[in-house]
Every structure is written in C-alpha cells, then in structure tokens.
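Before the break, one more example. Copy the sequence into your notebook; we will annotate it together after we see the structure.
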Amino acid sequence: MKTVREILEELNVLDEHARLEAKSCGNALGESFFESVCGFSNEPDCDGGTLVLGVSRVEDDFFSAYEVCGVSQVDKITNDIITGCAERYNHPVRPEIESEEYEGKVVVKVRIAELSPAQKPLYFKKKGLPQGAYRRTASGDVKCNEDDLALFFGGRSKERFELTMVAGTSLRDIDPEAIAHYRKLSLKVKPESEIRDWEDEELLEAVSAVKWEKGGLQPTLLGLLLFGTRQAYRRELPTVKIDYIRVPSNEWVANPAERFTSTNDIRGPLLQTVERAVVAIMDDLPKGFSLADGQIQADTPTLPSQVIREAVVNAVMHRSYREHRPTQIIRYTNRVEISNAGYSLKNEDRLGQPGSELRNPSLSEVFFETNTAERKGSGIRVMRKMMVAAGFSPPTFESNRDDNTFTIRFLLQHFLNQSDLEWLARIRKDLSENQKVALIFLREQRAIDNRSLRQLTDCDILQASQELRKLRDMKLVILKGKGTATYYVPGLLFPEHGSENESHGSESERHGSESERHGSESERHGSESEAEQVPMSAELVAELELITKQSRGGDVVRVVLQLCAWRTLTAAEIASYLKRTDTKALKRNYLSDLISQEKLSYLYPDMEKHPNQAYLVPKK
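Here is what the structure looks like once it is written out:
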C-alpha cells in the first residue's frame, strides 16, 4: 500500500478519482464510506480502490491542497470498518487496513480489492437489488440499475434482455432480404464460413434470433432488431429507429417558425439502418467536409466519414433497448450530435482505452463478425485520432447516468490552424501538444478541467493532471474548485489578446463569425448590459413575492423558467431569487431535470462544470 506522502502527492496532482477517495472521518464512519467500499468492490477492471481516512482538503482564495487532519480514535474506527464490511453486505468484504503516523497525526488507509465476477454484485443486505448495489465512477459512487446488474450477472442471469421472446410474433415477421444481407456481409469477411450452407432457420437459431416456443420457432428481440420486417418494426418496435434532424441554427429549436429544415425517420434491420444513417449524415455535410475512407489528410481539412460510421455503430450497438425512445442524430449548423439511450457501462475514466463493456453481447457479436464493428474497443480512440488528423478538434463524449443517455459531439470547425499556432508561439516555445490543446480550449471556454483535456487528447487521468499542473507552474493557469469540481482558469501569464485578429486570426478565417459559431450574445442569451436594461415583468415580481423557502414542485419550476426566460442566471442567482441557500439541492431537485427535459439549456453546453455555468430558456 502506498505511503501517506505518496497518497497526498497523488491527491494533490489528480484529486479524488475512481480508485482513490479521501475522507476527513472524524470519530465515526459515515454511510458514504460503505457506499465507496461497495463501489470499489464492484467496478469492473478498476482493481478496487483505496479509502484514506484522516485527510481533508483545505483551501482559500489562492491555494487548495489535501492535508492530514488525523484520526483520533484509530482502534474504534478500525473495528467499525471490519464489523461493517463483514455484516452490511450480501457477503463479507475483507479490507486491508493500515495506519500510519504522518507529521504527528494518524492516517488510516483502507484497501478494497475488486471482487471476482462470480461474487458481483456486492450490495447492502437491507436495501437489496438494485438499490443496495453501487458502482464507482470518476465523480463518486452511484447506485446500480438494471443495466449494471446485467453487466455483473453476465451469463449467470437467466436471460439477457436482447434474447427475450417477443409475444405475438412469428417467422412471418422475419425479412428474408435482411437475412441475405447479413449472410453476404459475413461471407465477405470470412468466405469459408459454415453459414454458407445453412438454411435460413438454422442461421437464425445460431445467432439467437429465434427460439423454440410451444413447438415452433419464435423471434427474440434480437431477431426483430436484426431481421424484422417493416410491419414488425412498426408494430413491435415503434421507437427503435434513428431520427435524423436538421436544425437551422446552433441551438435546439431556436426559431419556432423554422424548427427543423428536415427530418428523416430511419428504421428497419440494424445492419442496414447503420448504412442509411451514415449516408444521411455525409450527404448533408457541406461539400468540403467529405473525406474518402482510409484517407486521413487533405489539403483542406475535412470530416472523415469513418468517424461518423464509428459513432453511429456505437450508438446502435450499445444503446439500451429497454428504453422506449429513438436514437437521435441532430445536425446543427456548427456540429453533429449523436445520442442514444443507455449510459456507458464502461467507466468514463477508461473511455478510449482497449476493451468494451457490452450491453448487448449477442447483437455486438453480429456487428463484429460482419466487420461492422471492431472487437478491441478502440473506436473512441480511432475517432479522436482521425478527427485530429483531419484538422478538427476531437469529439467529446458525455455519459449521463441520470438521463440514461450517451452523446457524442463533433464540431464542424477546424482546430489548431495557423493562426492558433502563431498565438501559441507567442506564449512559449516549449509547450507540449497537449498543453497547446489545453490553452486553445481555455482561450475559447475560459475554463478547462481534467475530463475535458482527456477527451480532447489521448491523455489518461494522470497525464492530463500533469499537463495542467505544468501549465499552473508556468503561471498560465490557476487552479480553482475542489474534488471532482476542480478546474483551471487563465493565470497571471495567460495572454489576454488585444484584438480578434491579433489573438487568433479573423473569425471568418478560423471557423466562422462569432454569431455563426455560437450565436451572438444577444441572440443566444442576451448580454449582461442588455439583460440589466430589461426590467423584470410585474408578473414575475408578483410570482417571486409568493415564493417561500417551503415552496415546492410546480411552483418552483414555473418561477425558475420565468427567471431564466428573463435573463441568463447562475444557479446561485436563481437560488437567491427563490430564497434558497442550498444551491446543490436546487440543481439536484430542479435544474438537472429541466436540463434533461430541454426546458433549460446550459450557457456552456460543452463543459457542464464550467465555473461560470449559467442557465437559459431555449428560444422557441
């Protein structure tokens, strides 16, 4: 086990993360300690984790760091840990416990090993499943749901959801042309495959597309997804489709008179659906944005079609088919967003690393053997590399457990062009490539965190922290926030550009005017000066007078929406108007839901934890 000095260095470089958590502890263990034990025990491929007790984060306006506060009753705490780990869960956990004196104070280190697949999931006996089971993520411990349990149980579960029978269906709901298409793709990859000589029904049985039920073959959900007829899709799978939506602005429904310039409802057997969706996206991109497969560079940087294919395949293969909502591809003027139901089963810290956590293993196997998807789990890394090689910023990925969605965003704007490089050269000559990316992002967004840098580069969590720390040592950035909310803002030596042309070239040369990229401040959410000039309506004033600390539900939602329609507000400002002191509770109970319902939008959608994050009502 690492020494206290090593742990403090890690905390001060990386902060708490998926494999390390610090707790001040005091003289008693809180429930969160045992939730972390459960999360460390369950999280796949993270090799468990360490809880360090007697360490807290100290900060002021200029400095923040983890320091030892000590544990006073070591024997009591140690006994509580052993007893709790032995009695609280469905089977005992055997922690490794060490105490170490550091600068005259005692720190208790608790190492929790990852359980074997056969022992998972660990859960609290009193709560049962799924409420009593936890996973460990970069942002802390989260309760498990049905998808998590399916991952843990794997082949031990009675039946995977994709293999459930679909009542009322028969072989008449299977399209022979879809079978022929699958056979053609498979034989192209492996011409000597035994499926060449199989009858259609034998092939369907082999891939678990049908099962015997009451003396006859009946389609499974997988069978309908891969081979269903148009009529079966309409009748049994009305929400299993891809909605391709063209939005004539950078915002969702910015103009009620022209909400969408076009929509395309793509449904049918999944292998064919993927092909149609990729064609729809590529055909809709500006002419200069196409790039042949296998080509990674061009005189004018262009968006690779292979990147789009990887993203569409990811959305279809890993989506949750328990959810009754379509996959969405939204083509804004400045970006493409692909969003599917089902958060990433793979820990966000490991996105881009080899290996996959499969929500639909039988469906995935069909994609693998037809070469529609690759087996190594490197799709995200491939997308990042190809986007950078083509001159674009890497895609960003958002896995949202609360909303149960996974979203990939591709910006249709060039990144690190000549004017960017000239601006960077005026700062320092010895910047690494990752540091250059961080500074450009910081110049645009005015803040950056570890997660953002990892998504923009090939860095892991340690590398990203080291790069940001070096920029801090150069006085180019300043550390702000704490815990998982740590971020960096421009530092003392960060160059504040004098003019647009001097700092990063004309906007038209780089990637369109400011109004084209984000919409002008007045169009999107109103500038501060304009907002201050707009008086609060008498109706809103009256609503605020009626709001009390005890107000709940619809009353609060109504006033929040009216406030954010009046002007863009931070969570703290909204809380002040509502006579609230707990900003976190306001976010948790109201603002997060309004964001997921698209009734509110973030001022900085590409960085949810932006230090200046604020909320606005999208224009309708």
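The radius of gyration is 26 Å. The CA atoms of residues 165 and 213 lie 9 Å apart. Try to locate both features in your own notes.
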